[in-house]
Amino acid sequence: MTGGDTAIVVGAGPNGLAGAVALARAGLRVTVLEAADEIGGGTRTSELTVPGVLHDHCSAVHPMVLGSPFLQTLGLDRYGLEWCRPEVDLAHPLDTGGAGVLVRSLDETAAGLGVDGPAWRRLFGPLSAGFDALSADLMRPVVHVPRHPVRLAGFGLRALQPAALVARRWRTDAARALFAGVAAHAFHPFERPTSAAIGLMLTAAGHRFGWPVARGGSRAITDALAALLADLGGTIETGIRVRSLAELPPAAAVLLDLAPGAVADLAGDRLPARVARAYRRYRHGPGAFKVDLAVAGGVPWRNEHCRRAGTVHVGGTFEEIALAEREIHRGRLPERPFVLVAQQYLADPGRSAGDVHPVWAYAHVPHGYPGDATDLVLDQLERFAPGLRERIVGLAVRSAPGFAAYNANYVGGDIVTGANTELQVLMRPRIALDPYSTGIPGVFICSAATPPGAGVHGMGGANAARSALRRLRIPVTA
């Protein structure tokens, strides 16, 4: 494609906006086209239940923003982005009344895990201490010359293991469940290779940065990126649905913040046959069923740490969560699904309206699950917080098909834009030296289907922009 010094980005999610900023910093004139009327993709915030109570639509807690090698170069605090941290980063309640508890301090976390504390410290001490160096490699495509090869190799040996194998390091239900809840963010069975990777990375990030939230909601991340892009001369147009590459004006570079199947639809016969086949074969994972609550007085957790935790993982023991994750991969809805809960207002009280607080929760469900899982989610919460239903004054739900309608990248309700299979953890969206290249000159894919995968870190967009700039022989800004 020609187009001199212009660039077009299709999709204004975090990766699209990050890619747009990277291109604009390099001197290109960038236009972002967004199909929805509001930018942000999964990082949007609004009043979903009762007036004055702010709910994040999808992404809610953001350890990987602070761990992003690209976003941390942008100075987004100049555009109003402020981080808030809860007293307790993560709690995982058990039926005994106890809980596994993670705080930013590795020593404090280890002390709370009793006999499992030393093993927790041995595993996560080196990972968290070297997190910045590690993320510089992990946030890039698998095929690259590593900057820290020894550290990367050490992490890789553990990350390739099943989560079930890593969990054998610990003897107590609290430690094993604490790791299980984090590992479950992968939406992948614990017995499968590579299922430990995301659990290791997110736990290490928690000990390095904590699990913070953005003041005012996740939309603050979107707003800051958009403001920076505007300062760099970029523009954003909403309500523009692109159905074919032929609709786009000539441009030196085009970045597509889209799922692989959507890229294949958009490109049509311009896409090389081998790439089209790979994009059509790309696998999407299980779905999410979200329940947003407005709760008078907050959730009456039985465990004290849960009442102070920004994030609560609800699912019981390691074995229970492992069973639930196996079931959703078999297309069956568990009686006790794994549920993620965020209580962002504990760190950011401005999201509440008086004593009515937003509670964000979603359950893992089978891909495309069309049913209503509201009662199952509330049952799981009541299991550890009896009396919750009596405090609910507002409720909004979004099913797996609802997520797909909300954001076309969430195929079948897959909010991480791709199954974390062994192959797709290592090589996504296809096997290629440059996974961002579509095979069409000047056109690149930059969604969460590209390395390093899901999360609000912007690295899919930043890496795709670097790939485009290399092809254009334009120096890459750090």
Can you offer a commentary on this structure?
- This is NAD(P)/FAD-dependent oxidoreductase.
- InterPro entries: FAD/NAD-bd_sf.
- It holds the Pfam family NAD_binding_8.
- This protein is an alpha/beta fold and 478 residues long.
- It folds into two domains: 186 residues, FAD/NAD(P)-binding domain (3-Layer(bba) Sandwich); 252 residues, Polyamine Oxidase, Chain A, domain 2 (Alpha-Beta Complex), CATH 3.90.660.
- It is 35% helix and 16% strand.
- The protein has 18 helices and 16 strands.
- Strands 7-6-12-13-14-11-15 form a seven-stranded mixed beta sheet, with helices on both faces. A five-stranded parallel beta sheet has the order 9-2-1-10-16, with helices on one face.
- Helix 1 runs parallel beside helix 10 and helix 1 runs parallel beside helix 18.
- The protein is globular and about 65 Å long.
- The chain starts with 5 loop residues before the first strand and ends in a 7-residue tail after the last helix.
- The mean pLDDT is 95.
Q: What does this entry show, briefly?
A:
It comes from Pseudonocardia acidicola. With 478 residues, the chain is an alpha/beta fold.
Major beta sheet, strand line-up: 7-6-12-13-14-11-15
Number of helices: 18
Tell me the overall shape. Answer: globular
Number of domains: 2
Rg from alpha-carbon coordinates: 21 Å
Largest sheet: 7 strands, mixed
Helix content: 25-40%
CATH class of the largest domain: Alpha Beta
Strand content: 15-25%
The whole-number mean of residue pLDDT values reads 95
Show unreliable segments. none
Question: What's the end-to-end separation, in Å?
Answer: 25 Å
Structural class category: alpha/beta
Number of strands: 16
By CATH, the architecture of the largest domain is named Alpha-Beta Complex
